[in-house]
Amino acid sequence: CVMGGGHPFRFYPYGDPDRHVAVYKEMDCYSCNWQCIYPEIRCIQHIPSEAVIHEIGRVLKTIG
Question: Do 44 and 4 meet the contact criterion of CB atoms below 8 Å apart?
Fold first, then answer.
């Protein structure tokens, strides 16, 4: 999953860590209760797509 910082790690980690993966970008404003002080939700929008693609590949190798 792509995880933002409003409630970080509230529902993660759980299950098998090889199959259940969260990609996130920790920031100084983490735990904001989704009361973002920025005009964009940076903790989600600044997650590099390469990081998501990397984790998808890693999980596919693990389960395949």
Answer: yes
